[in-house]
Design a protein that fits this description.
This protein is an alpha/beta fold. Helix content is 44%, strand content 17%.
Length: 330
């Protein structure tokens, strides 16, 4: 058993490890600046003495809290947990903690959370923000900010280019003989929704096939299920849904109406978070959410360290993952 002493100072850890006080600080905040064996020696000395870094004291003396914020529109959507996990792991590498906020797809709630986080974090990552460009710029003027899936000049952002995968989806359906398709849209304020809708229209025009838009106000199972009558009324033989959750609802609604997939109707989702577990297995556009979370936090920490805002636009490409819900016209 290690006896935990109270009031252990950074100087005591430095003496025990035979290093300078600054090296102890770096071992806990920027370990990559030290040799691995030095970090290991410091950590062993700290553990033996029962030393725990005092983040509150650091915040008071330096104005730095060691916290960054991450705000997402729907924590229950399976697109976001891998993103959150990767963001947390990247932050932890630099001894930062993540404050997580969930907006329930509400711009008003998002604005409120940004305001509340501002006094407690050193910077923010907004994932799939539903705020207006004007509000995002106003917040970016107050504290360091990085965006995921929102393309605003002058603000560092990480973009998952689902447009490339969606174009592949339309080309795939055209090759299978489909001449009319539907796009089941997502939230109007979603950058990804606008990107996917535009990509489908452009690719459909190039392939010489018709496309109609059916609105699903929220990216949810029920929204997809409730959209099925509108989808079938168009006379289309295939659909591309805003995301896999919506596509899962469409799949259920088609089954309830005894529409065979892919025999009578082909279906494609986006983000590939449920494709391998639906029945039939869902054809979907690939998901880069984990990488987006990691890169966004890395950009934010670089921004905090340098203090200089760079107009970084980091783009992650996507592709179509073909499974069992797409088939040739009979």
């Amino acid at each position: 058993m290690i006896k935990r002493a109270k009031g252990v100072t950074i100087s005591q850890v430095a003496d025990a490890a035979g290093v300078a006080r600054s090296s102890v600080s770096r071992a806990f905040t920027k370990p990559d600046m030290l040799l691995p064996e030095t970090v290991d020696r410091i950590m062993k000395a700290a553990e033996a003495l029962g030393y725990v870094p005092n983040h509150t004291a650091r915040a008071l003396s330096t104005g730095r809290h060691g916290n960054v914020g991450l705000i997402v529109p729907d924590i229950a959507n399976p697109f976001f947990p891998p993103l959150i996990q990767a963001a947390q792991m990247e932050a932890d590498r630099s001894d930062f903690c993540i404050f997580l906020g969930n907006t329930e797809e509400s711009p008003k709630q998002e604005d409120k959370l940004v305001g509340r986080f501002a006094g407690q974090v050193e910077g923010l990552v907004l994932a799939s923000s539903r705020l207006s460009d004007e509000r995002i710029r106003a917040h970016a003027a107050q504290l360091p900010l990085v965006l995921i899936n929102r393309d605003i000049d002058g603000i560092p952002r990480v973009l998952i280019d689902s447009g490339s995968g969606v174009r592949g989806a339309v080309e795939h359906l055209a090759k299978l003989g489909h001449r009319k398709i539907v796009y089941v849209s997502g939230p109007q304020t979603s950058w990804s929704n606008k990107q996917r809708r535009n990509a489908i229209r452009t690719a459909a025009a190039s392939a010489g096939i018709a496309v109609e838009i059916v609105a699903a106000s929220l990216p949810s199972y029920n929204s997809g299920r409730n959209a099925v009558d509108a989808i079938l009324s168009t006379g289309a033989t295939a659909a591309v849904a805003f995301d896999d959750v919506t596509a899962q609802g469409v799949l259920a609604g088609l089954a309830e109406r005894r529409v065979s997939v892919p025999g009578d109707f082909s279906l494609i989702g986006c983000d590939d978070v449920l494709g391998a577990v639906t029945y039939p297995a869902l054809t979907s556009v690939s998901n880069r959410s984990r990488e987006a979370g990691r890169v966004a936090v890395s950009l934010l920490l670089d921004l905090l360290q340098s203090g200089a805002i760079r107009d970084v636009r980091y783009v992650l490409e996507t592709h179509l993952v073909v499974r069992s819900t797409t088939g040739a016209m009979t």
